[in-house]
Amino acid sequence: MDFSVFSQYLQKLEAIASRNEMTVVLAQMFAEASAEDARLISYLCQGKLGPAYKSPDFGIADKSMVKALGPEAEKLFKQKGDLGLVAQELNTGKGKMSVKQVYDKLWEIATISGTGSQDKKQQLIINLLAEVDPVSAKYIVKMILGKLRTGFSDMTILDSLSWMLSGNKKLKPQIESMYNVRADLGEIAEMVKNSKNQKLKNSKISPEIGTPILMAKCERAVTTFDIWERLDKCAVEYKLDGLRIQAHINKTVTLFSRGLENVTSMYPDICEGLARQIKHNCIVEGEMIALDKNGRFLPFQETVQRKRKYDILEMLESVPLKIFLFDVLLLDGSNVINEANETRRKLLESIVIPGDTVKLMIRNKIEKEIEIEEFFQESLKAGTEGIIAKKLDGGYAAGARDFNWIKYKKSYQQSALSDTLDVVVMGYDEGQGKRSKFGIGDFLAGVYDPESEKYFTIAKVGTGLTDKEWIELRSMIYELRTKNKPENYEVSNQMKCDHWVEPKVVVELLADEITKSPMHTSGYALRFPRLVSFREKKPTDATSMKELEKMVKLQKDRR
């Protein structure tokens, strides 16, 4: 496929607000592409050169791009406020390059390092733009600057792959199950293209070391009786308030966060421990957490201090971590995802060599209902936030939320809710009075609807944060500001913000209760919301509209 053809598709998509229309256009684009091009455009249409966890950063700021675009660029940039549009106006080229050729040039730009790398990057950009047409130049510049805004997610692309094969979304569950096990959108697109039929012969794919598996999720329980009624005899484990990690162990150790971020470099002590205590090629999951001198689990705020890109060795000494493993998904080339939970636990126990860093998650097998409550109380005394009950014969539901796993957390004083909510920061208002020094006075929070791929408001949070947390939050969202409200935000006039931000930051909120609201587009509001923590989650993994409805029902059941 010519890159100019791909650019025309991007231009068409940019003008579409409807997800269904986007799906049809994307299906047309993938139908026209070869299998290899399908892989590449899956990345490029999201402004990446690969999956987020292994896509290199271009390392080009606006200033460098202005320099690359030439002497007229600065003046035009002030007028248009968009360097992509500047590149389009200044470009007079008529050349043609394939998607693969442009991709290779972009990869070269992103991976140049060392002395003089910025000058080399600028020259490569100049050379590349000279070989393409104006519309292509526009989107190449946006990709390099990380400012390509297509308005659709991985799920829309999966929808489009189904539409390409069948003319509807009926194959989406099958394609999504492939993606859940091997979260590389480009690889999945290439597999679907190569299937050449609607049977998707390659759909039953196995996990692969180096490519993360979307992590399984828990349903909620209001009482221990709910767990017993659902599962009967089961296993119960501590629910630690730490950092969930998926470890891929081969000759090296690679760590992925819940949000599919490669965090290997942040935790050298955990990597060393895993390499020392597990001598198998495998994919395992666990929870990293800090402990005090008495072996009691520390609060999340202590553990999260280790999540940083700088001063890693210093923090390693002051906040040492342990990892408590609770599952194995691939073992010596064998896919064990669909094996019974009890079987996977025995396999996990067989491969972990006793040591200081890697531990097995504390776990009991339950024969009577009363034992669930007893284990729950024991877990609270140890400093956990509750328990997770697991169906003994249940498989691992990659990327899904089902009743194979049920979480039961400690009650919150003065709260009618059974759980906290993970919400997306959608925008914020300038601070007044004391908070003027922070530059933020409150923030708008929303939940996610996977069906429409839109965010709906549920709270404006202006209390419950410390000075430090206000400063931290603003620093996280300041660079995410966008001139206009994102197209996938549903916001009433009463909830408009001084500044809109891209949906990137997820925070955990606690509230007294969920109430009906005519002002919030979710239809609900949080009474007395307050911040619990900053979350390591993708925005699309935040609390969904469907989960919100479940929480409302559970709230009623508690009363």
Helix-strand blueprint:
Layout: H1 3-14, H2 19-32, H3 35-44, H4 62-69, H5 73-80, H6 83-90, H7 99-111, H8 117-129, H9 134-145, H10 154-166, H11 172-181, H12 185-195, E1 217-220, H13 224-231, E2 234-238, E3 243-249, E4 253-257, H14 268-277, E5 282-290, H15 300-303, H16 312-318, E6 321-331, E7 334-335, H17 341-351, E8 358-360, E9 363-366, H18 369-381, E10 386-390, E11 401-409, E12 421-429, E13 442-449, E14 454-461, H19 467-477, E15 481-482, E16 489-490, E17 499-501, E18 506-510, E19 513-516, E20 524-527, E21 530-535, H20 545-558
Parallel strand pairs: 1-11, 6-8, 14-16
Antiparallel strand pairs: 2-9, 2-10, 3-4, 3-5, 5-6, 6-7, 10-11, 12-13, 12-17, 12-18, 13-14, 15-17, 18-21, 19-20
Helix pairs in contact: 1-2, 2-10, 3-12, 4-6, 4-8, 5-6, 6-9, 7-8, 10-12, 13-18
Task: Note down, in words, how this protein is organized.
This protein has 559 residues and is of the alpha+beta class. It is built from 20 helices and 21 strands. Strands 12, 13, 14, 15, 16, 17, 18 and 21 form an eight-stranded mixed β-sheet that branches. Strands 3, 4, 5, 6, 7 and 8 form a six-stranded mixed β-sheet that branches. It has a five-stranded mixed β-sheet with strand order 1-11-10-2-9, with helices on one face. Helix 2 crosses helix 10, helix 4 (62-69) runs parallel beside helix 6 and helix 6 runs antiparallel to helix 9. It starts with a helix and ends with a helix. The model has no long low-confidence stretch (mean pLDDT 91).
